[in-house]
Amino acid sequence: MYDFDLTGPSALVGCLSAAFWFYSATSISREKELARRKKLADATGETPNLGGVQILDGEQRYDLIATLRHQARWSKWGAILAAIALLLQAADKYV
After folding, report:
1. In sequence order, what are the residues at sequence separation of 6 or more whose Cβ sits closer than 8 angstroms to the Cβ of residue 66?
2. CA-CA distance, 28 to 63, in Å (whole number)?
3. 81 near 35, Cβ under 8 Å?
């Protein structure tokens, strides 16, 4: 039928997917999360919520909720890109 080579685009999308998943594995520092909350509170005129759950890793302090939110957001996009890469591979093989 058609002679399209979708291997290159599939590999590119697959690499982007891997990069998104790799980025999702980073932790958010407590300081970075508090700065985000204060900025959001300043924009809305509310009092910032300074509570939270901390993860201690040696001298580093990470915010558990912010880390989970970050990981969920970026893993979602990594999964979507992985599905697109799979569809491109299937289309390359069967179309």
Report:
1. 28, 32, 33, 36, 52
2. 6
3. no
What value does the mean pLDDT of the chain take?
A: 90
Q: How many domains would you assign to the chain?
A: 1
Alpha helices (runs of H) in the chain, residue ranges in sequence order? 7-24, 30-44, 64-94
The closest alpha carbon to 24, from 75, 94, 81, belongs to 75
pTM over 0.70, yes/no: yes
Is there a domain that residue 2 lies in?
A: no
Average pLDDT over residues 87-94: 88
First to last CA, the chain: 7
Residue 49 to residue 42: CA distance in whole angstroms = 12
Q: Which residues are registered as beta bridge partners of 54?
A: 63
Q: Is 45 part of a structural domain of the chain?
A: yes
Provide, rounded to the nearest whole percent, the portion of the chain with pLDDT above 90: 69
**Domain contains 83:** yes
